Model the fold of this input.
Amino acid sequence: MGYVKYSTMALSVLFIAACSSPEPPPPPVKTVFDPLTRQVDRAREVQKTVDENAEKTRKQIEQESGDSRP
Done:
């Protein structure tokens, strides 16, 4: 009867251990190019902002010029 008790506990512990979440993946390894890629990413974000503002200005000018024409 003792074997049944211990085997049940062992199986339950193994089941819980098997169903636990895996370890998170390791963080990406930093390289020599990280500062350069960060600068490129920042430049892309700035370009995106400039393009959005230019598009807004273009639309505003088109609306104003469209309103003044008969």
Q: What stands out?
A: The mean pLDDT is 86. The two ends are 99 Å apart (CA to CA). The CA atoms of residues 11 and 69 lie 83 Å apart.
